[in-house]
């Protein structure tokens, strides 16, 4: 809810100041792609929580953390 509210506030602030202009299509495409990827990620995580335990997720997070520390 907080991120949604901040996004809506920034969106209306941007429209009132600059208008959408050429960026309207890019903004809509970004919104739709973010919405779709977010829904897929949530469904995948819920499916994983139902079907398997979180050991795979824990291993993934540990490996990702090590990679991020090394980079």
Automatic annotation (TrEMBL):
GO terms, molecular function: undecaprenyl-diphosphatase activity
Chief place of localization: membrane
BP terms from Gene Ontology: response to antibiotic
Subcellular location: Cell membrane
Protein EC: 3.6.1.27
Bilayer topology term: Multi-pass membrane protein
InterPro entries according to UniProt: UppP
Swiss-Prot/TrEMBL keywords: Antibiotic resistance, Cell membrane, Hydrolase, Membrane, Transmembrane, Transmembrane helix
Similarity annotation: Belongs to the UppP family.
Record protein name field: Undecaprenyl-diphosphatase
Naturally occurring in which organism (per UniProt): Candidatus Kuenenbacteria bacterium CG_4_8_14_3_um_filter_39_15
